[in-house]
Amino acid sequence: MVIGTVVEGPTDRLVLEAILTKLLPGEHDYRPIQPGQTFGELGTGWKGVRRWCRQTWQRADLNLNLIVSDDADALLDLLVIHVDADVAFESDLQQGEDEPKAGPLRRSFLMINCAGEKIMSACGRDEIIWVIG
Amino acid sequence: MLTQITIQGFKSLQDVRDLALGQVNVFIGANGSGKTNLLEAIGLLGAAVRGPIDYEALQRRSVDDEALQRRGVRPGTFRSSFSATGTSEKINTHVIWSKQDVTFQYQVEISETGDQQRPWLSDGEIRLIDAGDDELLVKEYPISPSEHRKKISHQLGTALSEYVIFSPNTPVLRGTEVDSQRLPMGLAGGRLPEAVAELLDVEPGMFGALDLDELLQLLDWVDQIAIVPPSRELVPPSVPAMRDIIRFTDRWMATDKNQLSAYDASEGALYVLFALVLALHPRSPRLFAIENWDQAMHPRLARATVRLFCQQMLQADKKRQALLTTHNPLVLDGLDLRDDRIRLFTVERNSQGATRINRVQVSDKILQAIQDGSSLSNLWVMGLLGGVPDIF
Fold this sequence. Notes:
Shape of chain B: globular
Number of helices of chain B: 13
Helix content of chain A: 25-40%
Radius of gyration of chain B: 22 Å
Strand content of chain A: 5-15%
Number of strands of chain A: 3
Structural class of chain B: alpha+beta
Distance between the termini of chain A: 23 Å
Radius of gyration of chain A: 15 Å
Oligomer: heterodimer
Distance between the termini of chain B: 40 Å
Number of domains of chain B: 2
């Protein structure tokens, strides 16, 4: 499988790929995907992941079906977006404001889910698999 | 033309199978991904096909260091050695070569034995296959190393044995350092002025088969190019003596100060000339590689140059085949991958460290994305095509 991974940092990629290789036996083609960045701003960490989601979702020139879909000529068979759960304690979450009383874990979920849903909806898909470890 | 190659057990190329090549092949990948190893594996095969040149090597039926260096291959230990799988015993190669209506399959093992660990050839075999729809086996015969030079040269032509890896560098292109005097140019770009002189015809305005204006459009600061004898005005005494020098006339400088030699002209222009000489010169090898052909070029210059390079390679009467490596994203946008003769490959290491090479093919979706304003360079930089380092 061709598996794209959007992660917070290089160590996360190593761990994630090891987990995926264990879960999905066989030789896989892992593609490290990263947001565009200038001055090193928002390239890493959960903001980097959020930046990639936002950049990708908002692109007018890139049909997200090209990135990941059931179609044989999609570039990826599987897209994995990784965020550490400690993001829940970040103060400047941009999404989930509609549930101001939500606890930090809930807010974190809402934020990532919001970005994920936008991406998946643009891909014509409605499935997000959450893996919490 | 070399249409397909399998290499197993060569450096990081532990198992690269059925790599299908076109006429112009561009390889992108992180530093250390194995691009150079691929070029060198073909060089080793080329040296092996050509046969040993010194008497000792001839006796040992091995490939000598000099034969490798002349091809731009660094002598050394070639067998793969991975911590997980150990050292490979031999290097397996299998090439498929098409020549007019016949396809040749050539399979041979290369081993390294003896005190000096020099590579030597095993017995191999050649299969001649009719390239028609039925792919009929016409002839099959084993060959021993002593027959290699004669039979391979006869069957494959001399193209594989002509193969060299060019690796241009600025001091040689400027003339401050010298390299071999091979034709049409040395591997690092020596003899560039003579090669340019052999193609440049100012009066009708041609550079080989190329309209000179098309070349000058790439070099927007250049008004004229000429080949002239060296003079103190253009070349300082510290530069080694040359028979000819390239003289550029700057479009904007004052008329008494507007002439520049390769010594102090923009180096990007020298790399452009280097690449186009190889595409156009009648004595260019029929199969060659250029490592980092576009270094020192502005990305847009590299994009326009690779476009022109491909065009000239495909139009030339003498069919040549090239392998280029690059790190420049915009080069991808200069490749018209809708033409099957132009191919792009990503090179990367798998989880065990072995090199993996994948062809990037343009699907309808990629074409749609390009029409919508995206680009191959964009997709590559994002990481979606593979062949990028995992460095944040």
